[in-house]
């Protein structure tokens, strides 16, 4: 076999010359562009390979000494990596928040990589900076509905920003709480502000003995990371329980008042507009009032649910989101943009000045460099993908996508409600919901013998885990699972399947097929008989 050799000539070729049109890489490119779904269904093979087996392919810890031809390497990637990856495009994979993408992102991704702009500063991004500001403005308008005069003042203002584009909801949540923290502990008198003097000085100056953030148990774990990073501490992220899946405003108020009466301070109240696990939306109007009473920052984590604002039919579900001081959105979820597209938006265009940073060689004062108020440094031009998607779909296109997802979830809920061996555990608000397999004879026992509930529920937990794992390993379809407390069983968290019906290619047949596969797995499992024995014993 022809072998590549390290030489300037080889390097030069790698940087410049595309391989021949019949090369392996060219074939891959062609196939990807023409029919992505077909490419994935051929190359991502659904075989039961254990992670341990796959690890064998990734065991070499030495940097390879010799170069390889690009095409040879591409072949290896196909066999080792692509073959054993996850087919997120599959309409029967309904457990992920990131699913199929519209095809135009493929060539656009190539353009993005080719241009390799860096949004940290104008010098390395030029037109990408105003584009990103415009995208932030569009999202800001979607949430806050400002008027013409507002956006003409602030959209491109060097001294303001309507938000920050970032890699995802995690960074967005961290950024929101970072701004809230720095706004709370601003400079006064001889105190130079928390950004310069640190948390200890701030707590002393302001005389608080504790700083907390309040949310519900459905709050995303990124809030815990934020509390950790910002010096608040994970234990001070207070996650109130929520058997009804939404944060109870009265309880949030009571908790906040208690902490403040004891000398602490609530930094922020976080409402969730579309919880990651069940898709529920917190009562934003009431929570805004609570934040007002507690005189704290009100953040809404709409990473998942924010795109619902595109739908005239369903945007009312997020009513009063405009009362939030900051909002997190993820374009790589229900806006069908490739991963790496999150945003935080601020109601007040001045807010992000609380974290503004200047440096000499970059981010000079008065410059429009976006990096001055973002947590991340070098960043790619991902905003272009959202810009393109918003133009190619239009609000009406996004509305259709949102509407069909929600309607599909209601349809699936209906299928489950009418199936003798399943139980819907949380109703869909958005296109997310949870359910579990409860054989009909167990349903009856749960009703007739309440004292058996704890034991039956534990056994059902085992069944849920068993089914979910077996289904995942078989590789034809995928639902995820989580553990929740629901109103029906307030004293015992239960394991449930979690489904996300965001893939527009998923249809009713796929959903029925998933339920059929799940009942089949359940009936074959030893747990089915064990449940039967438990119920019989009682009868
Ligand atoms: C997905 C999600 C996040 C985190 O977003 P990443 O993009 O994964 O960092 C935060 N909050 C909610 C509600 C989410 O659904």
From TrEMBL:
Any single Pfam family the record assigns to this protein: Pyridoxal_deC
Keywords per UniProt: Decarboxylase, Lyase, Pyridoxal phosphate
EC class of the enzyme, as a word: lyase
EC number: 4.1.1.-
An example molecular function term from Gene Ontology annotations: lyase activity
Cofactors required: pyridoxal 5'-phosphate
SUPFAM superfamilies: PLP-dependent transferases
Signal peptide feature range: none
Family named by the database record: Belongs to the group II decarboxylase family.
Protein name, entry field: Pyridoxal-dependent aspartate 1-decarboxylase PanP
Species whose genome carries this gene: Pseudobowmanella zhangzhouensis
Upper lineage: Bacteria, Pseudomonadati, Pseudomonadota, Gammaproteobacteria, Alteromonadales
Gene: panP
């Amino acid at each position: 076999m022809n072998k590549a050799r390290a030489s300037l000539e080889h390097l030069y070729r790698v940087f410049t010359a595309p391989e021949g049109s019949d090369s392996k890489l060219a074939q891959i490119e062609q196939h990807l562009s023409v029919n992505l779904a077909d490419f994935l269904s051929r190359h991502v093979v659904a075989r039961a390979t254990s992670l341990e087996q796959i690890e064998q392919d990734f065991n070499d810890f030495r940097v390879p000494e010799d170069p390889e031809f690009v095409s040879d390497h591409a072949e290896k990637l196909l066999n080792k990596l692509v073959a054993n990856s996850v087919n997120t495009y599959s309409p029967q994979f309904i457990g992920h928040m990131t699913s199929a993408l519209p095809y135009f992102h493929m060539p656009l991704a190539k353009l993005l990589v080719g241009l390799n702009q860096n949004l940290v500063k104008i010098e390395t991004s030029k037109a990408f900076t105003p584009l990103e500001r415009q995208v932030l403005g569009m999202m800001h308008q979607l949430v806050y509905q400002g008027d013409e005069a507002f956006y003409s003042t602030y959209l491109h203002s060097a001294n303001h920003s309507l938000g920050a584009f970032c890699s995802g909801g995690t960074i967005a949540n961290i950024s929101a709480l970072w701004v809230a923290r720095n706004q709370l502990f601003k400079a006064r008198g001889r105190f130079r502000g928390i950004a310069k003097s640190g948390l200890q000085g701030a707590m002393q100056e302001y005389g608080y003995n504790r700083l907390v953030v309040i949310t519900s148990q459905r709050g995303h774990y990124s809030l815990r990371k934020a509390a950790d990073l910002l010096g608040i501490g994970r234990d001070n992220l207070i996650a109130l329980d929520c058997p009804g899946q939404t944060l109870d405003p009265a309880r949030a108020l009571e908790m906040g008042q208690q902490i403040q009466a004891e000398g602490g301070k609530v930094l922020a109240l976080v409402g969730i507009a579309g919880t990651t696990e069940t898709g529920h939306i917190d009562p934003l109007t009431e929570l805004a009032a609570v934040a007002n009473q507690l005189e704290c920052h009100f953040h809404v984590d709409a990473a998942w649910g924010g795109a619902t604002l595109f739908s005239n039919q369903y945007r009312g579900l997020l009513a009063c989101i405009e009362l939030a001081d900051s909002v997190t959105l993820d374009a790589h979820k229900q806006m069908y943009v490739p991963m790496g597209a999150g945003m935080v938006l601020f109601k007040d265009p001045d807010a992000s000045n609380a974290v503004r940073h200047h440096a000499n060689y970059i981010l000079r004062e008065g410059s429009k460099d976006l990096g001055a108020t973002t947590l991340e440094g070098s960043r790619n031009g991902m905003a272009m993908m959202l810009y393109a998607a918003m133009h190619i779909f239009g609000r009406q296109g996004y509305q259709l996508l949102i509407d069909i997802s929600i309607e599909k979830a209601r349809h699936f809920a209906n299928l489950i409600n009418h199936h003798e061996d399943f139980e819907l555990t949380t109703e869909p608000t958005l296109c997310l919901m949870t359910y579990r397999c409860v054989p009909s004879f167990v349903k009856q026992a749960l009703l007739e013998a309440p004292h058996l509930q704890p034991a039956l529920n534990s056994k059902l937990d085992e069944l849920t885990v068993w089914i979910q794992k077996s289904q995942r390993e078989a590789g034809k379809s995928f639902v995820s699972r989580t553990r929740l407390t629901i109103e029906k069983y307030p004293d015992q968290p239960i394991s449930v399947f979690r489904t996300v019906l965001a893939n527009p290619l998923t249809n009713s047949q796929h959903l029925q097929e998933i339920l059929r596969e799940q009942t089949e797995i359940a009936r074959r499992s030893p747990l089915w008989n064990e449940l039967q024995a438990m119920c019989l014993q009682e009868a």
